[in-house]
């Protein structure tokens, strides 16, 4: 039996980047908010002297417990989906801050092309550039409309970077300058400029200098300790909801943050949500929290799963194309990299930061002509220096045994003598890549798990082949003793593939027939439910998603405030 609590204006499900931004903006506007987070409270004190690769990287302390909740996966509908039992592809955050605590910090904007991808592709290449099986669609808003929100997010987070002319216009420069350019990046820069490309330092949520944001939050600069990915930052130098927006919300006195609170259902009367049900993960007690507005801001998979388990929105049917919940699941394409091995040259590969890198934009979006290739969009071509931690990073030439004396010998030899020219490609939606509920497997509370049906498409494979030639050309210009290029895209493997950027399932658009939410991320079929996060992306660009999640969160905040002030109605 649930304990029914007093009604509140707004309840937020998940306190990561999206939830933190929404909480800060609503509470600053004087709106009382309940924030529900299934994990525990976290502060920078939890990470003091926490450079523990085994604890955080391999035992995934900051992540969702897969023994209690996971996803199932199959490559196509003819396969049986099986649960993901260990983290490989996805690292789903757990606790206050969510994935915003353990992310690397790479903070791009998507291209103007991304937001009108269907229209612009068909105008330039015709309606038959891709087959009808690719469910490409515009986002229901333009880059010019989202640009001010990108600017707000970057100022709040103190993003470090430099202006790139091949991207959309900027109303302001980045609030802090780019990170340091290491000797390895100078090699990349020199080689790419010889081909006429345009290298730039990757925009970073790791502060390049001390910074105080518009809310008065002061943070210190990055110390390049190399413990960003899968780690919380003990210095607060990495932008994190815990050290930026959540303290602002708490300071207002209008945020009731409840940790260890796992939301299992959104209650609704058939047209609107009436509140949520959540379980205290420590005591097992169940509570009903009524609310005027329900704001879903958890991870992509959890957003979709919660809606499906709550019977809110129409589930996507891949056979008919009808429905939108679960539609257009996308990943990213990371094959096509070239690894450089040096026999007699070494670098300081153990120093770094999560967003320390250099990239060229020349092969992203429609920045190059696609008339004679069998794909659209493209890749960022980059070299990064995250910092090679000693347990798991052992680059050795192919053919080296995976254990034993020879493995140790080659690991030591190339520990500081390996570089990579990498490719991170866009993911275009396909009718057979989608999310739904698993008919067999359930979580610790008896709720059906989310089932992913996904594999790489012909579009992905063609993109990889093309980008492999680019990374190889750049690598050969840099120069090394040995080169290895990943030229073919293997089938998707949920336990092996390592890109963590998942999008779609509750996609945005201008048409209720083909999308789940409008440009304020308000559900067409339940007007007082807002679903914020990368689940709203109709496709996935070649860039990391956090900057776009942040921008959409600020826009959604405006919409939610207006909705509450006006007493309801669909936003336009």
From TrEMBL:
Pfam families documented for this protein: GMC_oxred_C, GMC_oxred_N
InterPro entries from the UniProt entry: FAD/NAD-bd_sf, GMC_OxRdtase_N, GMC_OxRtase_C
Boundaries of every Glucose-methanol-choline oxidoreductase C-terminal domain copy: 429-552
Assigned keywords, A-Z: FAD, Flavoprotein, Oxidoreductase
EC number(s) given by UniProt: 1.1.99.3
Enzyme class: oxidoreductase
Homology family: Belongs to the GMC oxidoreductase family.
Name the UniProt record assigns to this protein: Gluconate 2-dehydrogenase alpha chain
Lineage: Bacteria, Bacillati, Bacillota, Bacilli, Bacillales
